[in-house]
Amino acid sequence: MSNIKTSKGKITFNKTEYVLQNFPNDSGESVSYALVSDSQVHIGTDKGIIFFDLSCTINKETFTDINLFTAALY
Amino acid sequence: MANKKISQLTAKGARLAATDLVEISESDGAGGYVTKSVTGANITGGQITAAVSTTLGTTITGLTNAISDSFLLPANTFSSNCAFELQWNPSRIAGTGTAVQGLVYINSTNSLTGATLIATGTNMVLTGVSNARCVRWVAVRNNVGTLLLTTNQSATDLGSFLPTENLPFDNSVGIYFLFVMNNVGGATLQSRNVGYRLVGYNL
Q: pLDDT tens-digit profile of B129-180?
């Protein structure tokens, strides 16, 4: 299980650090994330839009709800 | 190679590579010829056909985004300054619900988790079987790509669109291209990617 480490507006995954930032969604609105499904989410970063799902842990904590998972990233 | 017919040589068994050499007879303009070599890049004009699908993708069924097909772009196929055109062909097969989309991601592994979105295909709303050809032009400078906004649901980048200008694209390592079907709009939706092609140039 892959872990995401969070720290003040940044996340680290697979030894790569990403700065969280907004992106335009398909309607042109500026958003920080977009839910993809009940278990998947797109997260805006300085290195593009990154796909995460509930197979990941956040700071070693597991999640079963994508909304709680997403909230824990910020 | 002396005294051997071409048909007697060992077959390369692969596409012409940019660095391969081919023997030619160059006209001297006076009725004679001079034997020289040209590279594969000389012959193709520098065009690199990096990948073409040879099989149909796996069928994905409802309420998820999942990989239907993928390929590995080998390390150093493209340089840090390059341009390429990616085509892919999502297919809505069956089921009811809202739209199906074919999305493309890149990653260092053949996995969707942690992958970077590179393109979102057009909404496919017809019921029954329907296919779409989607295409993106990606301009890479110093390992950073500029292309149509990756969340824009579109088959083509012809026209005036918001761009994405921060796509990391460092081919000094291998890059997996992942063709993903979005069937979130209905539990019975079925779809798959039925083709792709990646062609580009080093600058």
A: 999 999 999 999 999 999 999 999 999 999 999 999 999 999 999 999 999 9
The pTM score is 0.90
Contact: A51, B166; criterion CB under 8 Å: no
Inter-chain CB pairs, A–B, below 8 Å? 64
Q: Does B113 touch chain A (CB under 8 A)?
A: yes
* Domain B48-202 class in CATH: mainly beta
| Residue showing tokens 């669109």 | B161
In B, which residues are within 8 Å of A43 by CB distance? none
Report residue A72: phi and psi, to 5°.
-70, -15
Is the Cβ of B149 closer than 8 Å to some Cβ of chain A?
yes
**Among A25, A39, A56, whose Cβ lies nearest the Cβ of B151?**
A25
| Encoded tokens for B38 | 């040209």
The structural domains of chain A, with segments of one domain joined by +, span: 3-73
Q: Which residues of chain B does CATH 2.60.120 include? A: 48-202
Map residue A23 onto helix, strand or coil: strand
ipTM above 0.85, yes or no: yes
